[in-house]
Amino acid sequence: MSREVIEKYAQAVYEQCVDIGRKLAESYGLVWLIGWPCQFRINKYNYTPESVGFSGVQLHTDSGFLTILQDDENVGGLEVMDKFVDPCPGTLLINFGHVAQAWSNGRLCNVKHRVQCREATTRVLIATFLLVPKEEAVEALPEFVDSKYPRLYVPFTYEDYRKLRLSTKMRAGHFSGSNSAMWMELLTVFLAKPYCMRNRVLSIRDFGNQTRN
Ligand SMILES: O=C(O)CCC(=O)C(=O)O
Ligand SMILES: [Fe+2]
């Protein structure tokens, strides 16, 4: 793949991120004025026969605002809330991260996911993460806070939050099931109330065994 193609793709998917952010904000009667940074990544998994049954990426939640995944068209393995999401060519998969959860005062939820190796082959996936500038304070917008929905989380900067993830060896936002309790405990350093890992998926279709026309 040439650099030019990658740059074009990255620009298009960034515009997609902004479009989704804008529509999301509008659906809440807000205006999206944010120029947040995007991180673009190509994940290549070189699975061997020994990898089968093991994790390619351990159970984790994403840290940023929004993630757009373009899955490998032929090789699946992404598991969202214990359910495989089979590749569906021509579609993008979107999930929210912790920033969206804090920003919306808990209305938007992040979701636990992981990657399992199912066959000895190569899997390539393109991931785009809409993040937040390091020094930016992440907090619930006033529009999401009222007497019925009191503020759930104290403001934190994205940098402090990232450091917390790294200091607990949850590199790239990945953490294993065994230390997830510790993770939740640490997160309460930043959150006014104990963090509630509500297992809800937003904007993710259940692709199941569906085939495209
Ligand atoms: O490779 C995948 O299917 C997902 C990767 C992922 O969840 C991540 O990089 O945060
Ligand atoms: Fe992820």
UniProtKB/TrEMBL annotation:
Alphabetic keyword roster: Iron, Metal-binding, Oxidoreductase
This entry's Gene Ontology molecular function terms read: metal ion binding; oxidoreductase activity
Q: Which domain of life is it from?
A: Eukaryota
Q: Does the keyword Iron apply?
A: yes
- Keyword presence, Cytoplasm: no
In this protein, which residues make up the domain named Fe2OG dioxygenase?
36-133
Which protein family is it in?
Belongs to the iron/ascorbate-dependent oxidoreductase family.
Write down the PANTHER family for this protein, in alphabetical order. 2-OXOGLUTARATE (2OG) AND FE(II)-DEPENDENT OXYGENASE SUPERFAMILY PROTEIN-RELATED
State the protein's name: Fe2OG dioxygenase domain-containing protein
* The species this protein was found in: Malus domestica
The lineage, from the top, is: Eukaryota, Viridiplantae, Streptophyta, Embryophyta, Tracheophyta
